[in-house]
Design a protein that fits this description.
Length: 462
């Protein structure tokens, strides 16, 4: 038969129900089973602790006996209380501390003390046709809840980046078996090149500090029965200046050059990332001389009061805690041309250059084409042949190349006739009628070798 829990706290109802399901799934029709929801139970000192137990069997039983024992490490189990059927027999030493309501085998401990920490053994015996026995063990831990931790920072005045170190300590007034965890911006802090922890993790060391270490730090402390988180602290870290830059409310800025329309007042702003805030100085450079013109993050320049059209300025930022400084240079150009026209001129420069380049390319191409047409070799040769006197052709002789070599000395000219009808030819006396050009070759190119005999040699031949 199955025994239901009697007078259980509401918090244990679900666990006991699970135990019943477990017993049914076991399918033990002839045995005894004892089930507990958890083999480890954590309790708070000074409060009551309930140890739920469920047992079941399916054989006839005349008597049911329940016994609770307590043991500590390296000690013999100690009898606490027991029952036979509905009758409870407690140990007189603990009768006001431990309570059991048969047939419910669950145990109530009230109040719980540190001395109650240990192993609790429950044993169930049933007697019918035969005697069956089963037992379970539950480990009980006792802790004090955690109080809200407090984080202390050393040095409290802060540390300089890359120079100073910082220590954060987590303090807790009450709590046992504490576990510490450090959080930065809500995320766990891990050991790194500049981060280290104490043996218990209650102290965080940062050496040296950097700008990246700035954030919201908190300490989370917990144990088996509670957890608490400290308030957020932000360590003071001095750094900078970083990212020094100059901006203006007017004018046209290109790189580090500001173009201002004449008669216009312009306000410059100098800023950098730094803690504590920087002190700023404005320096003007004129004719190889420099002098401080103003202190502070802002500088106002009246263009009509500036003698030069181009003036160089320097903004210096200094952090009096870190001892670091930075500076940036810029140039102010005052122009009489409106900024809108200047901007339009800059925008139209690229298309104008493209049009100019295309025009030059077309002009050069046309000139080269005209020169080629005027001085091409075909026309030069044709013009020279047309202007040659007819007497030169009559004096010219055609050689076959087999005459005496002594007669071959002279100046030779190779002439190409693209068109046989375009230039008159004189018949050669050394070319026979059979060597003439046939009708089908009238349109082919004809070559002739014309000998030019120097004047003295010509007279000698005559």
């Amino acid at each position: 038969m199955g025994q239901d829990a009697f007078m259980e706290p509401i918090s244990s109802t679900v666990a006991v129900f699970q135990c019943k399901i477990y017993l049914l799934l076991l399918g033990a029709c002839s045995g005894l089973r004892v089930v507990v929801p958890s083999h480890t139970v954590h309790g708070i000192r000074g409060q009551a602790l309930y140890l739920p137990v469920h047992y079941g069997f399916h054989t006839p039983a005349a008597d049911v006996q329940i016994i609770w024992l307590f043991e500590r490490p390296h000690t013999m189990p100690k009898y606490l209380l027991g029952s036979v059927n509905q009758s409870v027999v407690p140990d007189l030493e603990y009768r006001h501390k431990f309570t059991m309501m048969p047939p419910n085998a669950s145990l109530l401990i009230n109040p719980l003390q540190f001395t109650d920490e240990g192993n609790y053994i429950v044993k169930v015996n049933i007697h019918g046709n035969r005697t069956l026995s089963a037992r379970q063990k539950i480990q009980v831990t006792v802790d004090d809840p955690v109080t809200k931790p407090v984080v202390q920072t050393q040095p409290s005045s802060g540390a300089v980046e890359y120079v100073g170190n910082m220590t954060l300590t987590c303090l807790v007034e009450a709590g046992t078996r504490l576990v510490y965890q450090w959080l930065k911006n809500g995320r766990p802090v891990h050991t790194g090149p500049t981060n280290s922890f104490s043996s218990q993790n209650n102290t965080l060391h940062i050496a040296p500090v950097t700008k990246e270490d700035i954030g919201n730090y908190s300490c989370l402390v917990k144990n088996a029965v509670s957890e608490m988180e400290s308030d957020i602290v932000m360590p003071t870290i001095y750094y900078g200046p970083y990212g020094l830059r100059v901006n203006s409310d007017k004018g046209l800025k290109v790189g580090e050059v500001f173009t201002v329309d004449i008669g216009e007042d312009i306000l410059f702003d100098c800023s950098a990332d730094s803690y504590p805030p920087n002190t700023y100085s404005w320096i003007q450079r004129t004719d190889n001389t420099t002098y401080v013109i103003k202190h502070g993050p802002h500088l106002e320049v009246a263009s009509e009061k500036v003698a030069q059209k181009t003036t160089d300025y320097v903004c210096c930022a200094y952090n009096n805690v870190t001892g670091r400084q930075d500076e940036t240079r810029f140039t102010v150009i005052i122009t009489s041309m409106g900024l809108e026209k200047l901007a339009q001129k800059g925008k139209s420069l690229s298309p104008l250059a493209s049009i100019t380049g295309i025009s030059l390319f077309l002009i050069i191409s046309m000139c080269l084409l005209l020169l080629w047409k005027k001085y091409q070799p075909y026309k030069v040769i044709k013009q020279k042949l047309e202007s040659r006197p007819e007497t030169e052709y009559r004096k010219a002789q055609t050689f076959s190349g087999h005459e005496d070599a002594l007669d071959d000395f002279g100046i030779y000219e190779f002439v190409a006739f693209p068109d046989a009808s375009a230039v008159p030819r004189m018949p050669s006396r050394s070319v026979s009628a059979t060597d003439g050009v046939s009708g089908q070759d009238l349109h082919s190119t004809i070559y002739e070798v014309i000998q030019h005999i120097p004047a003295q040699q010509q007279d000698h031949l005559e």
